[in-house]
Amino acid sequence: MVHELMLNSTQNDSNDSELLPLTPPATVEKRRSDSQTKRSEVKPKKLLTQLRGSNRKSRLKFRPQPFTVLDLNDHLDGLRDDKNADFLRYALRHSRRIVVIAGAGVSVAAGIPDFRSKEGLFSSLKDKNCASGKDLFDYNQVYSSDEMSYKFNGMIANLHRLSQGAQPTAFHSMLDEIASEGRLQRLYTQNIDGLDTRMKHLNTKIPLEKPPPVTIQLHGSVNHVECNMCSKIENFDPSIFRCSSQDVDEAQVVPTCPQCEEFESVRMIAGLRSKGIGKLRPRVVLYNEIHPEGDLIGEIAASDLKKKPDCLIIVGTSLQIPGVKSLCKQLVQAIADRKGIILYMNKELPTKSLIDIIGSIDLIVLGDCQEVSKLF
Ligand SMILES: [Zn+2]
């Protein structure tokens, strides 16, 4: 009887409310009104639901024990049956807001020397009559004498030449791909070679400004010079920097700024007092100097923490610079609190200096980070 009523009701919409039982039995489907029927037939909405379903982050099924090391050298022929490798793959493919802190290890495969390894810049420069290679990155030392300035200029010119001739590595390409998918929240790079920012999706802004670019160059780059007076930024031109006392051309130890010179000559003609002429120096941040963009980088880092990143990749760096280590510590804390993923990729195991964060690292990936890009 009820069924009959229901069937009848479909033929006479105006009597719907009278014919339907107040609580239909479970076997009876409540009849939908015309407007509801129409809505369920709209296909794009269904499509949207399907799309949302396919975008859903797949669940993390396995997390390595603390202090787990994945040695890439043991898996050069492939990482198929390894839970830790699956975890690494999951982190790279499924994380949605990845923050990367990169160091020199990322660029070694491109032929750019790192700083602290045995073959690194610090030891190779030390051999060339310099107390320590590190002195050539110390503001107090670099401009202390012409001799030191020659060496500094030579080192920057050499790094510039190397980076101009180098190609970004497979790891750079992997980061670029992640960025192209909108999953790279930020790349904090300590590298001054500019190989990363050459990639299409790893752009930066020089000088740094808001809204922040994907890549933040924490220590500047060898590709630019800046005037210490008018702040004019130019491309680095090695020919204007004198690299030895034998240089007899127009190169200078600390070149003067052409823009300041122009302003000065205009002031002279106008009879105005002299304001002085600035000096050009490589736009690289040295030890013992105040970071010119430090406050802005701090603001960007604070806003990155608020955006709830779900994965941190520390790669090719032993985190020896206190400012970078402190940034890393904050990110580790925020990501670990939200059960995100923290990866440490380096040729060497973390040192004692990382004792504060080592317990929060999900996986230590030991070996050449270029091998990781093959996994991806
Ligand atoms: Zn100037």
From TrEMBL:
InterPro entries (UniProt xref): DHS-like_NAD/FAD-binding_dom, NAD-dep_sirtuin_deacylases, Sirtuin, Sirtuin_cat_small_dom_sf, Ssirtuin_cat_dom
Compositionally biased region (Basic and acidic residues): 28-44
Keyword check for GTP-binding: no
GO CC annotations, alphabetized: mating-type region heterochromatin; nucleus
Active site positions, chain numbering: H219 (proton acceptor)
GO biological process: negative regulation of transcription by RNA polymerase II; pericentric heterochromatin formation; regulation of DNA repair; replication-born double-strand break repair via sister chromatid exchange
GO molecular function: histone deacetylase activity, NAD-dependent; metal ion binding; NAD+ binding
Any one Pfam family match given in the protein's UniProt record, by short name: SIR2
Highest rank taxon of the organism: Eukaryota
UniProt keyword annotation of 4Fe-4S present: no
Region (Disordered): 1-44
Binding site for Zn(2+): C227, C230, C257, C260
Keyword annotations of the record: Metal-binding, NAD, Repressor, Transferase, Zinc
Domain Deacetylase sirtuin-type: 77-376
Annotated PANTHER family: NAD-DEPENDENT HISTONE DEACETYLASE HST4 (PTHR11085:SF15), NAD-DEPENDENT PROTEIN DEACYLASE SIRTUIN-5, MITOCHONDRIAL-RELATED (PTHR11085)
Entry's family note: Belongs to the sirtuin family. Class I subfamily.
Record protein name field: BN860_13366g1_1
Species for this entry: Zygosaccharomyces bailii (strain CLIB 213 / ATCC 58445 / CBS 680 / BCRC 21525 / NBRC 1098 / NCYC 1416 / NRRL Y-2227)
Organism lineage string: Eukaryota, Fungi, Dikarya, Ascomycota, Saccharomycotina
